[in-house]
Amino acid sequence: MPLRLFNTLTGQLDPLEPADGKALRMYACGPTVYDYGHIGNFRTFLQIDVLRRFLQLSGVALRHVMNITDVDDKIIRNAAQAGVSIGEYTARYEAAFFEDLDALRVQRPEQIARATEHIGQMVALIQKLAEAGAAYQAEDGSWYFRLRAFPEYGKLSKKDLSGMEDGARVDVDEYEKDSARDFALWKAPKPGETSWETAIGQGRPGWHIECSAMAMEYLGESLDLHAGGEDLMFPHHENEIAQSETVTHKPFARHWMHVRFLLVDGRKMSKSEGNFYTLRDLLLKGYKASAIRLALISVPYRHQLNFTFDGLVEATAAIDRLRTFHQRLTEGQFGPGATPAMQEAAHKAHADYLAALANDLNTAEARAPIFDLVRAANTAIDQGQFLAADRDAILAVLKDFDAVFDVIADNDAEPTRQALAWAEREGRMAEVAPELLAAQSISDEAIEALVAERTLAKRQRNFARADQIRNELAEKGVVIEDSKDGVRWKRK
RNA sequence: GGCGCGGUACCCAAGUGGUAAGGGAGAGGUCUGCAAAACCUUUAUGCGCCGGUUCGAUCCCGGCCCGCGCCUCCA
Question: Considering only CA atoms, which of A360, A352, A338 is closest in space to residue A400?
């Protein structure tokens, strides 16, 4: 089923398909690596991951490029303060960024493009703009895009800038510009700042030119899709369009996807509001990576998501339900054959699930048939109306669910372990939740041994000892489940 | 001021012109040595307010109230 995805440019749901019939060429704006990523950043990357994974599930090949902005004003400032080169400074946060993506099971794009490794392409693009009369150099050596050279400016964000007079806004930019709205392509260095010596002079690239140059370098002049956070629509993406289309006279991207913001307690997340969380903050509070992933993708990308800790608790419970069910299927014994009812239920759930995702990546709607199926199957199993082929059919549905959601498979131990190791290195152990430390104090092997001892004690009807062990484990966040099929345990 | 989005049960959150998915929490039950867990059942005569269109609107139109985002670096 082809994906119908909202297109900011056209304002409607458009089918998303590769123009060349082979691979979808998509560009997504990546991070500026000047600090640790926060959960708002990751909501965007997670939603783009949902897009990627659904396309792959649909059999669409991908050529996905993501930039890393590893030079900008903040980086230069922070690196100088730290007394290191910008390369040293950014390397650390870039590594942290990828660690965080891994923790959240966000797939890597096919191509990562660092700004500092594509200075030549940016300079070439600025030269072409200058030839077209759309770029000019100011007295200090900086280059600007002449907005008047691109009459369609504003077509993405639906802004009419014709009524905006120069000087109507206070422009604090200290550089010389022809028009207040003209944006920087290339910034001349102030004394001591990192810069490159190039054909257009000494300096560093502006943020917008990066994305135009790198997108076209890897994907050609006309992309199938360009994605990013909603805040980038204006001016960043508008500027990219202006720069690119002025040179190519072709649509820069046919399809634009914008992920709406994550709010915290109903407000935009910001450090000054005190509602700012990095992924690491949440992991150290004891929340599982899978719960964070599910919470951030369960509200469809086109809606604001109000992040709360209750939401994480809820996601944790939802995942537990799915994992417990999955375990019940894989470990249970079922007779040969199939029941028409379960086969039909599995088939319907699968179809509904895919249809929901194909409908503008409606993740909330996509979850529902999966949980419906869980309930139907649990009921059937309880009633003994469930056979081996039913299990296989349902496991196939869950496999496709996890192909996109990726939360049933339990990969939570490693991110938590890494976050703790990081906290240790950074001297931030004080931020670690006590329950998390308690849980870390017991190994799987030790748990297995205690569970075995408890089972033996129960068999000998030594309930006092059995309960003692149960309590001991509970204190370390380990939950024991006695069932007909045997004893299971899990970490809470 | 301009542009855009949203207000659905205790909480989160889908959705449709014909009478409300799903998750969480709560309650009841099954199971259990007990408990927990697990599992099942259950929970909105109503979808911000007021009009209109319609045989019929939560869903379409108009007005109003409230909240949020963008318009500046920002995912």
Answer: A352
Check if residue A206 sits with its Cβ under 7 angstroms from strand B. no
Q: What is the CATH number of domain A4-259?
A: 3.40.50.620
Ranges of each domain in chain A = 4-259, 268-404, 413-491
In this structure, which amino acid lies at residue A178?
D
Burial category of A371 from C-beta neighbours within 10 Å (exposed 0-12, middle 13-18, buried 19 and up):
middle
Q: Is the ipTM of this complex over 0.90?
A: yes
- Nucleic acid strand B: bases within 7 A of protein CB: 2-6, 11-15, 21-25, 31-41, 67-75
Residue A173 per-residue DSSP state: -
- Of the candidates A225, A297, A226, the residue with the CA atom closest to the CA atom of residue A262: A297
Q: Which of residues 165-184 of A touch strand B (CB under 7 A)?
A: 169, 183
Q: Give the number of other Cβ atoms within 10 Å of residue A148's Cβ.
A: 13
pLDDT digits (tens, 9 = 90+) for A66-124: 999 999 999 999 999 999 999 999 999 999 999 999 999 999 999 999 999 999 999 99
Q: How far is the CA of A326 from the CAs of A370, A371, A397, A407, in angstroms?
A: 12, 12, 11, 11
C1'-nearest nucleotide to the CA of A74: B73
Question: Per-residue pLDDT tens for A310-361?
Answer: 999 999 999 999 999 999 999 888 999 999 999 999 999 999 999 999 999 9
CA of A382 to C1' of B41 (A): 14
Topology of the domain covering A268-404: Isoleucyl-tRNA Synthetase; Domain 1 (1.10.730)
